[in-house]
From TrEMBL:
<protein>
    <recommendedName>
        <fullName>Tyrosinase copper-binding domain-containing protein</fullName>
    </recommendedName>
</protein>
<feature type="domain" description="Tyrosinase copper-binding">
    <location>
        <begin position="271"/>
        <end position="282"/>
    </location>
</feature>
<keyword id="KW-0472">Membrane</keyword>
<dbReference type="GO" id="GO:0004097">
    <property type="term" value="F:catechol oxidase activity"/>
</dbReference>
<comment type="similarity">
    <text>Belongs to the tyrosinase family.</text>
</comment>
<keyword id="KW-0479">Metal-binding</keyword>
<keyword id="KW-1133">Transmembrane helix</keyword>
<dbReference type="GO" id="GO:0046872">
    <property type="term" value="F:metal ion binding"/>
</dbReference>
<keyword id="KW-0186">Copper</keyword>
<feature type="domain" description="Tyrosinase copper-binding">
    <location>
        <begin position="100"/>
        <end position="117"/>
    </location>
</feature>
<keyword id="KW-1015">Disulfide bond</keyword>
<keyword id="KW-0560">Oxidoreductase</keyword>
<keyword id="KW-0883">Thioether bond</keyword>
<keyword id="KW-0812">Transmembrane</keyword>
Length: 349
């Protein structure tokens, strides 16, 4: 059977992850329609100063909201934590919900980013606002963008200034992940001894292998996971690497909870980089579906998958229930992705 919408007021979490409660039942998701302009999520290393200013303003406002407001960054991070911290149980199942390590990984994070982005847009009163995507899979040795950096580094505006005056800054990050260091898609956390050149080669190889060998929906999305089952049965090709490796690479190995914030699911979504990281994962889903390649590269058509429902708070603090089938077509969600090179596509391995 499909998962019914979790009941947010039944949330129970040892980690303090429960988002604010709702005194009304969720309203079913409605497509935004053409009243919402078509929006393009741009590569984080290609945005301009005007965008960065807006982006910073949006997170500054989000950070100012109290944790009791479901739109606050703390409440957003808690919601993510609740969905992976066994916080949602159901009267008719013996098991709590886990949206990682299985076929809900891609659609659930697409939903989360959709609502998160709508909240940011509404806070700054600009419906055209989009999240950027952190284009870490792009190793093209192009000239770095002035002041921002290359595709495969952390863009400098996340780290400088490195204090609370910068709403994109986060205290808990790996110093070896800061610019101008090259990202390590094979990271086990902490620093790497490899040269930027060999990191680039290894990153491209990893991307090529993970994308090329995902020749079926099962391999790309991960294990079947039906209502009443215990979760965490296995993620798709990309969920461990590069997704998990970027998390653990970005988190601080010397934090009180090693690898905070990005490297721990309970706190990862406190770092604004989380959302740019996941926008790139979301883009790779679209690339996988549309760019060809061997095999059967289509969305899962199983009814239990399509009809499973989750709940999120929207930009008006209203609880909304949304089905997996609602998020398979980006046109209906009114966004797309800037075209960037995917150099791993033509890499030989
Ligand atoms: Cu819900 Cu990148 O994890």
């Amino acid at each position: 059977a499909p998962f019914p919408a979790p009941r947010i007021n039944d949330c129970m979490s040892w980690e303090g992850c429960c988002p604010p409660r709702s005194n009304v039942p969720p309203i079913p998701f409605k497509f935004p329609g053409t009243s919402l302009p078509m929006r393009t999520r741009r590569a984080a290393h290609l945005v301009d100063a005007a965008y960065i200013a807006k982006y910073r303003r949006a997170y500054a406002l989000m950070r100012k909201l109290p944790a009791s407001d479901p739109r606050s960054l703390v409440a957003q991070a808690r919601l993510h934590c609740a969905y992976c911290g066994a916080a949602f149980t159901y009267p008719k199942s013996n098991y709590a919900l886990e949206i990682h390590d299985g076929w809900f990984f891609f659609p659930w994070h697409r939903m989360f980013l959709y609502f998160h982005e709508r909240i940011l847009a509404s806070l700054i009163g600009d419906p055209t606002f989009t999240l950027p995507f952190w284009n870490w899979d792009n190793q093209s040795p192009t000239a770095p963008q002035p002041k921002v950096g290359a595709a495969n580094t952390m863009p400098s505006y996340y780290t400088s200034p490195g204090d609370n005056s910068n709403s994109l800054w986060n205290r808990n990050r790996n110093r070896c992940a800061l610019p101008p260091n090259t990202i390590d898609l094979n990271s086990g956390g902490g620093c790497s001894n490899s040269s930027p050149r060999s990191l680039r080669i290894d990153n491209t190889r990893l991307m090529a292998v993970q994308m090329r060998t995902a020749t079926t929906p099962g391999l790309f999305f991960g294990s079947t996971y039906r209502f009443g089952w215990s979760g965490g049965l296995g993620g798709g090709n990309l969920e461990g690497s590069p997704h998990g490796t970027v998390h653990v690479f970005t988190g601080n190995p010397n934090a009180a909870n090693p690898f905070d914030d990005m490297g721990n699911l309970d706190r990862a979504a406190l770092d604004p980089l989380f959302y740019a990281h996941h926008a790139n994962m979301d883009r790779l889903w679209q690339v996988w579906k549309t760019a060809g390649g061997r095999g059967n590269r289509v969305d899962i058509s199983d009814r239990d998958y399509l009809n499973s429902q989750f709940v999120f708070y929207d930009e008006n603090k209203k609880l909304v229930s949304i089905k997996v089938s609602d998020v398979l077509d980006l046109n209906k969600l009114r966004y797309n992705y800037q075209n960037v090179p995917n150099p791993w596509m033509s890499a030989s391995s």
